[in-house]
Design goal:
Elements (H helix, E strand, L loop, with lengths): L2 E12 L2 E4 L13 E11 L24 H5 L5 E2 L3 E4 L6 H8 L16 H16 L3 E8 L2 E15 L4 E8 L8 H16 L4 E6 L4 H9 L3 E12 L3 E11 H8 L1
Parallel strand pairs: 8-9
Antiparallel strand pairs: 1-2, 1-3, 4-5, 5-6, 6-7, 7-8, 9-11, 10-11
Helix pairs in contact: 2-3
Length: 258
């Protein structure tokens, strides 16, 4: 069991510099110094540990662990299976990206408004890079290994919540490649990377109730339907919608593999 210690003291504020200052009783002066009260929570881990941490408190005893965001964002991660590769989307893939984003059917159940101008979609590819550099979202292109430069679809991870070690995923394919199990395989490739390498504890997805195909992708990959949030989300082009929440924990994934 970790041992916790609360340290309490007073700082003397002197010409902008903060200095530790003991509080003495019975002392009076017309020019009394100003004081600032402080508390520091110190944590001692383990019986044999003599070190105290005061800068950052990390609770890992509940199995949540710590997300290794640098694995995602220090260098764009490429993931492969026998049939497919997940890699960075480049400007050279503009034709395929436009085919996806200009198709109203692709986004019938997504909070994305289709884009019908090539220049707009071309700018979006630059936004993919911007979001990656901001460490807010990562989009992988899905490519078949036997045709490695033809983009089939996109799978993404976003809403990185490091406080609870959770991320949300999404995916969409060119309509020409629906019904081939490609989205299911892309999620299958992504899960071990996020759980084992990035050390994420929870992965979730939000699905509109009529989107039965997307639900099957998640269920085949071990996700559980956890419930429905009713009229709780505003999606672009859809208004206020109901969403079903599907989630999988690292412990669920490990049990499934066993």
């Amino acid at each position: 069991m970790p041992l916790f210690f609360l340290r309490i003291g007073i700082y003397k504020i002197n010409s902008g510099a903060h200095k530790k200052f003991p509080l003495k009783r019975g002392r009076s002066s017309m020019k009394r110094p100003q004081y600032r009260f402080f508390m520091v929570l110190l944590v001692k881990r383990g019986k044999k540990c003599s070190c105290w941490k005061s800068k950052k408190l990390v609770i890992s005893g509940n199995g949540v662990g710590i997300m290794k965001a640098d694995v995602l964002f220090n260098q764009f991660p490429i993931r492969k299976s026998d049939e497919y590769t997940l890699k960075k989307i480049e400007e050279q893939h503009l034709d395929e990206v436009f085919e996806i984003y200009s198709n109203d059917n692709v986004f019938a159940y997504c909070g994305i408004i289709p884009k019908h101008k090539r220049e707009t979609v071309k700018s979006m590819i630059g936004h993919f890079e911007r979001d990656y550099l901001k460490k807010s979202r990562i989009k992988w292109g899905i490519f078949a290994n036997d045709n490695p430069e033809h983009l089939l679809g996109i799978v993404e991870a976003f809403d990185f919540n490091q406080k609870v070690n959770m991320v949300t995923i999404g995916y969409f394919l060119s309509e020409a490649h629906w019904g081939k199990g490609i989205a299911t395989e892309a999620v299958k490739i992504l899960l071990p990377f996020l759980f084992m390498d990035v050390k994420i504890n929870r992965i979730q997805a939000e699905v509109m109730p009529p989107n039965e195909i997307s639900k099957k992708v998640l269920l085949k990959n071990g996700f559980t339907k956890e419930g429905t949030v009713r009229q709780a989300t505003l999606w672009a082009g859809k208004g206020i919608v109901d969403l079903e929440i599907y989630g999988i924990l690292k412990e669920d994934y490990e049990k499934g593999r066993g």
